[in-house]
Amino acid sequence: MQTPFKRTLINLAVASACGIPWLPGHATEAQAGQAATPDVRQEGAGTTDAAAAPAAPAPAPAPAAASPANTVVVSGSRIAARGFTQPTPTTSLTAADFDRAAKPNMFESLTELPALQGSTGRTTNTFSTSSGIQGLSSLSLRGLGTIRTLTLLDGQRVVGANVTGVTDVSQFPQLLVKRVDVVTGGASASYGSDAVGGVVNFITDKRFTGFKANVAGGMTRYDDDKSGTLQAAWGKGFLDDRLHVTVSGEFTKQNGIDSPGFGEVGANGRTWYNNPALQESTRAMQAAGAPRYRSITHAQHIQYAKYGLITSGPLRGTAFGPGGTPYPFQYGTDCVGNFCIGGDRSGSVGAGTNLAMNFKRQVAYGRVSWNLDADNEIYVTGNWAQVKSVFSPNPGAAKQGNLSIRCDNAFLPPSVAAGCTAGYPGGTMQVGTANAQFPANINVHPTRTQRRAVVGANGKFALFGKDWSYDAYAEHGENTTVIHVRDITLNPRYNFAIDAVRDPATGRAVCRSAAARAAGCQPVNIFGEVPIDMAGWNYIAPRNGPMQHTESTQNVASVNVNGELAQGWAGPVSLAFGAEYRREKYAVHGDPYGAGASGESPYGPAYPQDPTLSATGDNWFAGNYHNGQGSFNVKEAYVEVNIPFLKSATLGEANLNLADREEKYSTAGHARAWKVGATWQTPVDGLRLRAVSSQDVRAPNLSELYAAMTVTNQAVNNAQGSSIQIQQRNVGNPNLKPETARNNSFGIVLSQPGWARNFNLSVDYFDIEVKNVISSLNPQQEVDLCYGGNQEVCSAVSIDGPAGTNYVLAQSFNFASLHTRGVDVEAAWRRNMRDFGLPGSVTLRGLASRTIHAISDPGVPGTTPSEGAGNMTGATPKWKALLTQSWDGLLDGKLGVALTERWISAGVFNNEYIECQANCPLPTAAHPTIFDNHMPGAVYIDFGGTYNFSKQVTAYVKIDNLADRDPVLVPQTNLSLALNPAIYDAVGRTYRAGVRMNF
């Protein structure tokens, strides 16, 4: 059945193809005697469409043979046609831009773009053991999350490096990338699911000829995060260039920034870490008008000390030092809630998180193509990539006053044991410790290995007197992710080991539990600065630590065709259409101690059976990975048409761009994406207007559909307010539906007007509203919704049965929504300085994004929407800008210099917080009160330079964060690292130097 949109699209195409004028009296392109100026570059070029200034040319390789198809491809559209100016804003970065940035990883350059907000990388999630995204270089546009940004390689999908389906940019062959197009608008109608925030398309040089290499090294001013990069590529044509072979290899190693351990100390001489925290006032203080939170520095947590602290009863404040000697703990001053200011901060764990991961990437890539004739080629590409990371999320394993220690513990000093017996009627006291006796910090080792092959064909053919282009490919991709966690403890074994008593027969310390002793329990002393017994350490932290093994597989078959339907009176009517089939599946296996089941491990040595551990898993301090599997397939087809409908010397030129994509998922059912856009080249010199409205989709990913079950015990209230014990079963939801987004944008483009031939400017307003957002609910929310009549949620709730049988499936549902809007600005100016009697040329370029709103609504009764714009604990500052000034061609064309400024505007700790110092209203869960809600912004200045020894050899240097600006600290309600590397630079001044060769 034809929808109204489909009928409109078909009618428009037919009318234009038949020569029916949209506005009578205007000449056709043929009558005008000239073609419209294309707004794109040739052979895979995306429109700068925000007027990217041309970068200084690098030494050029030998001329490559033209691609047989030699078409124009615009990443924001599937249309490739003469004179087509797409309505979707697109920013392009060329290989020269990446050379100027001189980063070890192209990903790091991209994340500096203002539109990219919330990306993950080697400096983010360094605190995380169990997330599965550690070391994953994945891009996020508009702060909408990596799962809502589609990342492509030569317009093709790439197998996900995570169960969420997101790709790892570090696995791409980067040396051969000649341009990256960032489509900052919905593109699902053109490219399919996930393109809600936009598309990032990496375009490689498919006909590279010659040899080129890059050798570089770097380090910070603190003599850490040392890095080395080696890249090489070779390409050559054979048999009169009908056969073309291209290969490349890349190796990058970044040593990271190791943990300094415990206490208020920065890594390797960094002095900015000062134990920040949010101190929470008591309810009595809040009732008297004090704010709930106050940001403090030099905070001391009162629930633990470095080597043990008694936190309750008459011995409260007794700490343990060298040899287990008790001493009075120094709490500091202004003690409120869990924090004091000052005091003994030697056991603080926040500084122990790595600032940057130890990171290694290896990539091998090859492409072989054969020209069937002058217009058609077949090709095969292969890619093998491996990315390894190592980092420490925290030192020790802090226990915040929650250890119950009996008075007869074998390791208590006699004076403390006597005081415990006399002062604690129950025979137990509460102790907290940072467990600084542990011989090593927890260390996490994620490894992602990609194997990908593509077979394809592209070219052109004639049909009905018109030239048509096609591109077809089949892809098979596999990604294996293995995460190992080392030097981490098993909670049950730890609890048995620290509960030690003296054996009456031998006087030797042994584990109290006979069952634990029979299972190999070895006692551990946690009181004081004493070397840990290695037998005890090997018992509580076995070498076969937490492990997760994930296999992700993607198969894609795709065909795309585009060409001109007819010559309309205002220009050629162009059509693109295609179809795609995609199947994705995953299987994940955790170790038996984390996932449960027997001691057998399918991907490693068997884990010894231990009856003291929980058979359902979740035994580790962190890193309890569970088993799961799932798959889905999708069939989709699309059509896109471009219709020039205005060409006039007085009114200018205009075209209408329409697209529709129909998708059928094996899991989520039918989904539809569409786009309506237009551009108008006004009669005003250089001025063009563009607008686009689209519906975009994101289908639920494998993790959301088929997440492995984990179980915890919780309590919920029923409709009568009675508390009921339940099992919280965290699990995927196979009934999820696709998210849908309405994406609107309007832009003004000024492109080299007569009065400013070297100037380009674009200003685009965007408004993205995502509905049916997939988000998780807690058990009480699900129970309340069920009692409120929501039958979908009721299917996940069972709380009316006998005791011990009640449960709630903690799942994700399509209840939430996201709404973000703002403005993008891009400007560029280039001038040949010889006009002023000076050498070389100067290029100025600036990009900025202003986020007006970034509203997240849980969609659940009793909750309120929250504003993320300017929330400096999130990913969307109000302003983010990137400005570059370069001067190339100095010293007879040999020297080039560049200056870059990265600016983040000031914001708040949280938009939902109420700032007040006295007479504060009573805080609520949605709107807490805080003494100071302000968070400063930041400006980072980078400097770089190049020197051409010859046309083939160029040396370069780069200094990032030239002023070594300290990161802004973001206090938390615990003593975490308190940084937000998604916004602020956490590494410090970094030096890099290298040599590029191009023969």
From TrEMBL:
Residues 448-962 form the TonB-dependent receptor-like beta-barrel domain. GO terms for cellular component: cell outer membrane. Its main location: membrane. It holds the Pfam family TonB_dep_Rec_b-barrel. Residues 29-66 are annotated as: Disordered. It is found in: Cell outer membrane. The keyword Transport applies. Keywords: Cell outer membrane, Membrane, Receptor, Signal, TonB box, Transmembrane, Transmembrane beta strand, Transport. It comes from the Bacteria. PANTHER family: PTHR47234, SECRETIN_TONB SHORT N-TERMINAL DOMAIN-CONTAINING PROTEIN. Belongs to the TonB-dependent receptor family. This is TonB-dependent receptor. It comes from Pseudoduganella dura. The lineage of its organism: Bacteria, Pseudomonadati, Pseudomonadota, Betaproteobacteria, Burkholderiales.
